[in-house]
Amino acid sequence: MAGYPEYESLRLPDLAEEVLNHWQDRRIFERSIEERADRPPFVFYEGPPSANGLPGIHHVMARTIKDIFCRYKTQKGFRVSRKGGWDTHGLPIEISVEKTLGISKEDIGEKISIEDYNAACRREVMKYKNAWDDLTRKMGYWVDLEHPYITFENAYIETCWYLLKELHKKGLLYKGYTIQPFSPAAGTGLSSHELNQPGTYKLVKDTTVVAQFAVTKDDRSTFLFSVSDAPVYLLAWTTTPWTLPSNSGLAVGADIVYCAVRTFNPYTFEPATVVLARDLLAKHFNPKHETLLLDEYQPGSKAIPYKVLGEWKGSDLQGIRYGQLLPYVTPDGDAFRVVCGDFVSTEDGTGIVHLAPTFGSDDFRVAREHGIPAVLVHDAQGRPAPLVDRRGRFVSEVIDFAGEAVKEEYLNETEKEERRIAQGRDKYLGVDERIAIKLKQENKAFKVEKYEHSYPHCWRTDKPVLYYPLDSWFIRTTACKDRMIELNKTINWKPESTGTGRFGNWLENLVDWNLSRSRYWGIPLPIWRSEDGEEKCIGSSEELALELKKAVAAGFMDASVLHNLDPGSSAFDLHRPYVDRAVLVSSSGKPMVRETDLIDVWFDSGAMPYAQWHYPFSLTDLSGVYPADFIAEGVDQTRGWFFTLHAISVMLFDSVAFRNVVSNGLVLDKNGNKMSKRLGNAVDPFVTLDTYGPDATRWYMISNAQPWDNLKFNTDGIAEVQRKFFGTLYNTYGFFALYANIDGFCYEDSDISASERTELDRWVLSLLNSLIREVDEAYGDYEPTKAARLIQDFVTEHLSNWYVRLSRRRFWKGDYTDDKKAAYQTLYTCLDTIARLMAPVAPFFAERLYSDLNGVTKKDNNESVHLADFPSADTTLIDKELEERMQLAQDITSMVLSLRKKVNIR
Question: Between 241 and which of 204, 432, 761, 803 could a Cys-Cys bridge form, CB atoms 3.0 to 4.6 Å apart?
């Protein structure tokens, strides 16, 4: 007979390559699904990565977690189909293309056509697909790479259009003019979940100003001037001085107590009476100076006297008027007055908030409630526009700062140097600093200082965002908020704290989803509108084709447009610019043009449960493929993919999108720092796999820390796993193979009954069956770390260090007795079971161990451990009393060895 293979050394990378070739030659992955065609499904969703960037070591971690439970459920008898996918739209692609082409967003449609630009994006999306596929195969992640879903494909887009139409029919899709997060660097608005991606809020030091707004003396303000012999000013603090030219109102808290304080301006030394919240007095005045006499003040002295003249509630100040601070543009309407706002507090500042309705959501709301107009100009198309354009620069009407970027991060180094020279300074001064200087000189600044605070940045460009007035399309997620919260409680979150805390809190504070993106490469919003507001939302390519034929018949559009929008044409493409050329006809016979926006790319990924199957066009019934039994992604997806999956599913199907979710933590460097190419601490996953092999890498990542905890990645740890766990298991198999080949043991004889085996055999079999039960429970509860540690402990501490060591003489003796057969049968059973238990985590080594054993005995009909069933615990073999007695013996032995070592007794 052919014996058990024996090896000279353990080379995990070589072993993995050999097993990988075996899988591919024998179609093991495909067969693991085909051979369970009649079994109940276990539904898994692959969150789509973007292939225009190279994969990192953290992707090995994330994909290992996904692979573990899909393999485990396959072993448990489920049919586990898993389709790969690619996220192909959005900012990462566009930014990369613009960098490659050396253009900006403003050049699209000017220097390069939208058609050519999108063609370049299409080429860019799969730039590193081969590298991703290579990593996926090398690490042993089983997912269908031959038939992936791709978000730029027409079929995928068509399903997204269908979903949007369903939302539209439910009244959950609407257009609104509001203040939204806007990224000038990316040229588009952002949704609240994009603004809450990890790392978007950064600590920055900005120039802040407490501005003096001169109160207009009239009947309404007489009470302020009656207590003062100096001009009266309202003090308002801002961390964004660039918004001051857009000021058109001031807000106070109705019940906050304000005081008038006679003092002197610290920059011009002119007398002033300033109004601010009483509770914030100490923030702006030194209590030691209250006793100083106003008449004795010497201009320039740092000891500035002050005197409180009177106190009033905020409601008493409402209606007071003041002069425009920076009169570049005068608004139409009743501006420059004090109103009460419910958001005003005394936590910081002065208790008076400057309102720039074009640059703040609270400002916009309160100004609208009180009829305060915004400061606007007209753009090139004659439309009302704010004083800052979409590039984040002042318009020409702001003559002192025309064309200036309101955040210096929007300038490149060349532009910054040009500005410095134009300013005639040794260093470039940003807009905020120069506005502060101007206000100081004009006696309009009471306090200027640097202030460190948290400020939002674009999740893709890493540049500051602005809050900006946008005409946007929204999904009314708030209408389904309660149901989303209710259904979230039925999801098994690992860890639970993510579901109840991070995700649960997000749902509690939900706002409507800003769907609009003013970009070029993405899924077009399928809404056409006429000038009088009639609206059509298109839900399929067939529906669009029918509408186009009506429009051609009505003479609104040339038939040549149909070429790119005909589903039967090879040029069929639902992207811009082709859909932009489609003019539809309204029910009243008027032309309808498409709303130019694209949709949020997170909608693309959130639609994958349906779009991956081209529902409802190619697949009409979602049963068996929805909802997912299991998903897993990084914790950064809590407010990204996890949210969009949940939101779309609840709003349209009144169901969860996933039942179990593992939210894995970050992979950090060995010192606990975030990995980055810039810091030089990034780990190349390909080098790691080639050096240590995928099994050791996967086992280290899973056994070292819980998936949801941050992992301090250290290759020394992989080497230890390689030596301690895999080396021990390899040596244990080697010991078995050596003596089994000598004795010709091939498990031909029937099993020797447990009662006839030694206590040592019964103990290890009891422990083995306890292990099966505990590992099964751990996998079933999505606790892979617990499972890996249980297996590792059994192999290193019990099987190798105790059972084999104490049984060696039984294998060595010459006679082939029943006792020797029992030892072989026991050790074989342990090794075969370990192969099945470890297969989800270490699929290559498990395959080799299983094949080496089963190739001789033929005890199992399966060609692969991944086609075999997960072991079942034989509870009749579990003897807890025996396990406890043996544990006591092990503990005593360990203590004796420790004492002998301590006193140096051999």
Answer: 432
Residue 602 falls in the annotated catalytic set:
yes
The alpha-carbon radius of gyration of the chain (Å, integer) is 35
Q: How far is CA 823 from CA 212, 514, 665, 803, in A?
A: 91, 67, 43, 10
- Label residues 655-683 b or e (16+ Cβ within 10 Å = b): ebbbebbbbbbbbbbeeeeebeeeeeebb
Beta-ladder partners of 449: 208
Per-residue pLDDT tens over the stretch 582-600: 999 999 999 999 999 999 9
Question: Which has the closest alpha carbon to 870: 831, 841, 844, 833?
Answer: 833
Q: What is the mean pLDDT of the chain?
A: 93
Instruction: Examine the residue annotation and report whether 812 is marked as an active-site residue of this protein.
Output: no
Q: How far apart (Å, rounded) are the C-alpha atoms in residues 66 and 784?
A: 11
Select which of 55, 83, 87, 600 is catalytic.
87
Task: Tell me if residue 48 is catalytic.
Answer: yes
Angle at 501 between CA 500 and CA 503, to 5 degrees: 80
Average the pLDDT over 235-245 and give the result: 96
Distance of CA 337 to the CA centre of its chain: 43
Write out pLDDT tens, residues 677-689: 767 888 999 999 9
Q: Out of 602, 613, 699, 763, which one is annotated catalytic?
A: 602
**Amino acid (1-letter code) at residue 605:** S
**Which ranges of 375-444 does DSSP label H, i.e. alpha helix?**
413-423, 431-441
Predicted confidence at residue 897, as pLDDT, reads: 65
Spatial separation of the C-alpha atoms in residues 174 and 167, rounded to whole Å: 10
The active-site residue out of 48, 55, 241, 464 is: 48
Name the active-site residue from 641, 699, 763, 802: 641
Active-site entry in 175, 416, 674, 712: 674
Which parts of 442-538 fold into alpha helices (H)?
A: 481-488, 496-497, 504-508
Does the pLDDT value for residue 832 go beyond 80? yes
